[in-house]
Write the C-alpha cells for this entry.
Amino acid sequence: MKHTQRPILIALVALVLVWLLAWSGYVIARHSKMTAEKVNQYQLGWNPSRSAADRLKFLRGLAERLNALSPDERQKWRLDQDWFRVLTDEEKAYFIDAFLPGEMQTALKMFEHWPKEQQQHEIDQALKELQANAQKPIGEQLQGLNGDKPPLLTPELDKRVRTVGLNTLFSQGSAETKAQLAPLLIEIQRQLESGQLDLNRF
C-alpha cells in the first residue's frame, strides 16, 4: 500500500510546486508590469543638476520604461514639453533615438489592428488637419502649443525626428500600411519642402 501511495504523493507534491511557481510568476509579472503612472513617478526624479553622464543614464531609463508600456498604457502618457525644452540638444537627440522607434512601432501596430474604415477615417482627418494648418499664417500657427516659448526642436532635431519616424515606418510597416499612408506622406513631404510644415508649429 505504501509503495502505491508514494507515486501519488510525489505527483501531488509536484503539482503543488508547479502551481506555486505559476502563481508566483503571475504575481511577479503583475507587479513588474510597466504603467504610465510608474513612468511619471520615475520622471519626477529628473534632476538637472546631475552630471551629463547621469542625465543620459536617466534618459535611457525613461526610454526603456516608455518602450515597455503596453499600447493602452502608452496612450495615458504625454510628453511634458516644458521638461523636454530644458534638455540640451544632445539629450534631446539621445532621447529621440531611444524612444521614437518604439513609439512608432506601437503606433503602427495599433493602426494595423484598426478596422479598414477607421484607418481611412484617421488618414482623412490627418490630411484635413495638415491642409488646414498649411493655410494658416505663420504667426497663427505658432500660437497654441508653443506660444512665446522657444521651439521644441532645432532644424537638425526636426529632421532627425522625421528621419527616425520614416525609417521605422519603412522597416516595420507592412506593404499595405505603406500604401495606405502614401497620400499622407506625400502631403507631409510637399509641405516640408514648401516650408509650410514645421513640427514645432503642429
User: Anything to note?
Assistant: Confidence is low (pLDDT under 50) at residues 25-31, 139-146. Residues 153 and 200 are 6 Å apart (CA to CA). The chain has two domains: 1-32, 33-194.
